[in-house]
Amino acid sequence: MGEFQTYIMDEDKNLVTKMDIIRRLQNLLFEKRGESIFFDKSVIFKTEIARMFIDYMNIDVDRDLVLTACLLCNCKKVDNAQKLGRVKTYAKEGADYLLNIGFDPRFCKICEGVNRYSGLKDREQESDILELVDHFGGMLLDRPERAGFSPEEAIIQMERDNLKDVDNKYLNTFHTFVDKMQQIQIQPSFYGEKIGILKQPFSILKKNVCDDAKDLADMIKRIKDYEITLDEKMQELEIQPIFQAEENAQKNNIKVNTNSNTKNRKNIQVESRSLFTKETVERISHLNTNDSKEENLERGA
Predict the structure, then answer these.
(1) Which of 26, 28, 70 is nearest to 47 (CA)?
(2) How many other β-carbons are positioned within 10 Å of the β-carbon of residue 46?
(3) DSSP per-residue codes, 94-121
(4) What pLDDT was estimated at residue 193?
(5) Comparing C-alpha atoms, which of 141, 226, 129 is closest to residue 173?
(6) What integer pLDDT is reported at residue 219 of this predicted model?
(7) Most distant CA pair in the chain, distance
(8) Residue 115 half-sphere exposure toward CB, CA atoms < 13 A
(9) How confident is the model at residue 260 (pLDDT cuts 50, 70, 90)?
(10) What are the residue boundaries of the structural domains of the chain, listed by start?
């Protein structure tokens, strides 16, 4: 493992810190070497969706590894309509670049699997998460030629077209995740919205966090507020996540109606797991502890 990989994947660095490190690295590389790496609002947007998916569905993967890969897998993407041919090569070019600067081969292979253009064999399971959030997040965002899809439209498009003929391990679980997020409403008053206005998480993430941010630094600050607010809401609702476990289907033959908004959706075999990852529980506990201390100080305790 190279020096930069060791640094950015240090267990003491949370996701928001990683985002800011890569933002600063992008500026530094361009100023000092004239070298470009792709890192924009869409990367942060998609990575936050990956965080929500892993945390709230309690996906059994190395969380830090996957989220770091989400931040870096598009590092050689070219946002230029005149270079559409690069769409089929940027993932492989990015993986090669990361390998050259010291990232280990497995990490680079995960990043290369963000799409399937390179024909990579023996895909890593973590690549399936990158693939899902890349498609889903990309469809939610507006483009010059079209408005963004709704979450319901995006997941249906993925199932019927984009990922129709591929074996993505987490696709059904991701559909369940999208359904559950669409049933939740929170108040984004910390972004200047009027008191009493309730919005769904994906709507807030797109409009208030991504679109309204003046630059990357501002978006990263908004992400921090968004994560805290949504984590607390999820804990408040005491929602037990639904996690599809194909490997445990025979042991856990439970069918659950997810109340999907999608017509004719089949019931899914699932098992129930705890709501939060260890990191999320620790973050909320820390916030609650700090809040109690502040309240005591205000009361003169």
Answers:
(1) 70
(2) 25
(3) HHHHHHHTT--HHHHHHHHTTSSTT--S
(4) 61
(5) 129
(6) 96
(7) 65
(8) 18
(9) very low
(10) 3-298
Spell out where the chain has E strands: 242-243, 254-256, 268-272
Token pair recorded at residue 258: 């997810």
Q: Which range has the worst mean pLDDT, 5-14, 127-136, 189-198?
A: 189-198
Question: 5 is written with which tokens?
Answer: 């990989």
Using the 8-state DSSP alphabet, how is residue 300 labeled?
A: T
37, two tokens: 């790496």
Tens digit of each residue's pLDDT (9 = 90 or more) over 276-293: 445 544 554 554 444 443
Who's near 74: CB < 8 A, 6+ residues apart?
38, 39, 43, 90, 91, 94, 114, 134
Amino acid (1-letter code) at residue 228: I
Query: In whole angstroms, how far apart are CA 145 and each of 53, 141, 165, 291?
Result: 28, 11, 26, 46
CA 228, chain centre distance (Å): 15
Q: Which element (helix H / strand E) includes 233?
A: helix 216-237
What is the rounded distance in angstroms from the CA atom of residue 183 to the CA atom of residue 260?
Answer: 9
User: Which of these, 17, 48, 10, 23, lies nearest to 229 by C-alpha position?
Assistant: 48
Give CA–CA dist 189/224, Å, rounded: 14
Residues 6 or more apart in contact with residue 228 via CB below 8 angstroms? 283, 287
Tokens for 159? 């199932």
Report the DSSP pairing between strands 268-272 and 242-243: antiparallel
d(CA 127, CA 71): 13
